Amino acid sequence: MSGKIVLIDGHSILNRAFYGLPDLTASGGRHTGAVYGFLNILFKILEEEQPDYLTVAFDTHAPTFRHKMYEAYKGTRHPMPEELREQVPLTQEVLKAMGVPIVMKEGFEADDILGTLSVKAEREGLDVSVVSGDRDLLQLATEKVLIRIPRTKAGKTEITDYHAGDVEEAYGLTPPQIVELKALMGDTADNIPGVPGIGIKTATKILKEYGTVENAYAHVENIRPQKAMTALRDHYDSALLSEKLAKINTDSPVELDLEKARLENLFTPEAYEMFRDLGFKKLLTRFEADPAAEKRVVEVRTVTGLQEADALLKKAAGTDRAGLYLLQQTDRKSGKCRVYGLGLSLPDQKGGVGGTYYIPAGGFVTENLLLDAVRRIAGECPLLCTFGFKEMVRAAELPESAEGSVFDIKIAAYLLDPLTSDYSFDTIAKDCGTERVLSAEEIFQSKKIPLPEQMEEDKAAVYAGETAFTALAAQPLLERKLEENGMLALFRGMEMPLVYVLADMERAGIRVLPEELEQYGNRLTEGIRQVEASVYEQAGETFNINSPKQLGEILFEKMKLPGGKKTKTGYSTAADVLEKLAPEAPIVRDILEYRQLTKLKSTYADGLASFIADDGRIHSVFHQTITATGRISSTDPNLQNIPVRMELGRQIRKVFLPAEGFVFLDADYSQIELRVLAHLSGDRKLIDAYKMEKDIHAITASQVFHVPFDQVTPLQRRNAKAVNFGIVYGISSFGLAEDLGISRKEAAEYIEQYYQTYPGIRSFLEGLVTSAREKGYSETMYGRRRPMPELKSSNFMQRQFGERVAKNAPIQGTAADIIKIAMIRVNRRLKQEKLRSRLILQVHDELLLETAKDELETVSRILEEEMTGAAKLAVRLEIDMHTGNSWYEAK
DNA sequence: TCGCTGAGA
DNA sequence: GCTTGTCTCAGCGAT
């Protein structure tokens, strides 16, 4: 018999993969990095070797004979981290799905199994490759048995191969002598004692001369270095024990089943499903080459004729479900929207997908015709399935339709797993196990998706068509999952209605005066010039102050300021560090001022100017699928971090103005997160504190520091305020100390006193951690989830992080939910009452409205009612409202 | 592309 | 002994 078999040391390779690769987590927080690495090594070896047979050996969980022996001798092995442990059964499942036999035997280690199988295979006349990270296995090498040891080097796996001859070359010893070597030198990693005082050099020398330990002992008197002689003489027992420990059993009761081991198709449908669930996207591509597992790629038919297009669009409006994707592009400057085509997917009778089409705009099929069709379908079709609905709302100016009649798969995917950043249609398709679609990368043969105007029409057709297909095909599963997770109400009643509000805000934009913005920038430039000159003078040279590297060298090396390295790459020059090091040093003051000025200039003055559109307004983009906690985010530009704390920065708000005839009305929630905490925790004392309707931080100070309310000092209030904020973030004594400039001990006392004062808070926060640990996620009042894979980490720091996040996410998230509700309700009221006033911005706990002067009173009332009434909490929700002729005045 | 820095809640 | 308060986005320099 001839042929080749590959034998794999499962645990050992898994171990290599675990430590050699960054930790990956699939959705749901399962760790998968080691499995992924294992498979990569496996595939690499199979490609190289093209073997006929494959078998993987694993240790059993029960302690084996050899374990017991050395554990009895000395301690235990270091325990396997939990992240790795949970991947062992997972790997076995994957192998099973691929039809690869796994051999395990109670009481025997993988080593022994590999040894036995390799001997048996060799006897059968096979070439054998044993793959393991463990050099102990070198003792198995022969002319026909190859030992292969992979190493991960800079992310790449390199494999070193040993036949018997290679072992001799590398160690100067025959493979069987490797056992003797271990017997003498020992192996701390494996708890093999060896002979104390004999290391690899002496051991090799002795074995070269005497061949075996036994023979060496017989001639012990002749052994050269005196020390080695006495060591061997005195510890011969230990050497014999070590030999037993190191010797791999090649006669274990396991069978070599070549029928099962025969390599056939690894890429089975079962394996495909597992890879997909585990998020091994790269590995999925291996299935393409295999016709059996190949899934048909969705076909998109391009429809150009007016009549045919018209018929199709009518049909879409008439069906009970339709998948729709509008390929359009909005010009940033003009705000004009161009429509390039419409992807459309229709169901079949059985609830599957019937056909997928692309209707390009052109000829008789005008852009307006397509937009009208979208409006009609949105209005008539009972379930419109989309991907990125906000863009469609903006392009077609869709009015809000009945709850439950639109389903955005992107938003659904976000709610189900808000931690990823990839909500591309092809990823959603894979996650939902629909028919195969091409990814954007495959369609355009580039990482970047081109703008619609640059797309070739045939590619645009596939892109838009498959997106529409995915929307339709993935919707049922996504809806079921939302239902299962109790998030359907959140999705239908909050996230989908919010889409219209965000679309309105984006369309509205905010007015900015370009001339004044430029003047502001010029003032900054002047200031920058002066401070810059001062810095260079004090440094004695010119350099780039914006370069932390150069700055660090100047400050800490040339000028010899106290304080050393803080970051991986060099000196930290962050403001708080500099502040602490040399608060008095004039150059530090100047640098901090320089930083402030250049930040304002580049990010705000110049940055904002580049976004002013032809209508004199900035139309920022609001994202609904970014944050882990449910907040919305803003980009291009980010209008949620416009300066306010420092006066100079705050000035920039003077260039944000309401339209002619309007004023700004700004309303922000008063300590919404703390109120949410009071509500969720149910802490009587904190709730009562809010019922007193006085300054909450002062009340806290009074209660925590045991002083009468009217004798609370400003410092006490400030400290109490910092604790109040910190609690919400899962504070540590270190963090609070840092914040307040007090000692850790004092900070710890503050926190303890706080918990004493509000006992419900501590138990509530601890309960959040426990519950998150059990369930694997945290939850807001409205059922929004945030997965918490970190809580299961074996890494202390990661786990600590997980605990803080578990405390913060439900609070921050609930506050985010509440303001989303408020936004929806405010927007609806404005429309219902046919007001000209409109929502312009949301800044997490604040809403900015452009209000018609004659509507000021009405709108104030609406805000008051809808914002405070957005949630019914155990404490009142309160808002502060201001009007003004600029954002500066209104805040 | 990554890390640092700093703006906001 | 080690770490050290949440969530973001943008600009810059170094790689």
Element layout with pairings:
Elements: E1 4-9, H1 10-20, H2 33-49, E2 53-57, H3 65-73, H4 82-85, H5 87-97, E3 102-103, H6 110-123, E4 127-131, E5 145-153, E6 156-162, H7 164-171, H8 175-185, H9 200-210, H10 213-218, H11 226-234, H12 236-246, H13 258-261, H14 269-278, H15 281-284, E7 301-302, H16 306-318, E8 322-330, E9 337-347, E10 353-360, H17 367-380, E11 384-386, H18 389-396, E12 406-408, H19 409-416, H20 425-432, H21 440-444, H22 457-484, H23 488-508, E13 510-512, H24 514-539, H25 548-558, E14 565-567, E15 570-571, H26 575-581, H27 586-609, E16 617-618, E17 621-623, E18 633-635, H28 647-650, E19 656-657, E20 662-669, H29 672-681, H30 684-691, H31 696-704, H32 714-728, H33 733-740, H34 744-757, H35 759-775, E21 777-779, E22 785-787, H36 796-832, E23 838-842, E24 846-852, H37 856-868, E25 879-884, H38 887-890
The protein binds a DNA duplex (9 and 15 nucleotides) through helix 25, helix 27, strand 18, helix 32 and helix 33.
Describe the model:
Residues 649-855 form the DNA-directed DNA polymerase family A palm domain. Single-chain monomer with multiple functions. Residues 3-264 form the 5'-3' exonuclease domain. This is DNA polymerase I. Its EC number is 2.7.7.7. This protein is an alpha/beta fold and 891 residues long. Among the domains are: 1-170 and 253-283, 5'-nuclease (Rossmann fold, 3-Layer(aba) Sandwich), CATH 3.40.50.1010; 176-248, DNA polymerase, domain 1 (Orthogonal Bundle), CATH 1.10.150.20; 300-485, Nucleotidyltransferase, domain 5; 513-611, Taq DNA Polymerase, Chain T, domain 4 (Up-down Bundle). It is built from 38 helices and 25 strands. The strands form 7 sheets. A 6-stranded mixed beta sheet has the order 3-2-1-4-5-6, with helices on both faces. Mean pLDDT is 88; it is low at 62-78. The chain binds a DNA duplex (9 and 15 nucleotides) through helix 25, helix 27, strand 18, helix 32 and helix 33.
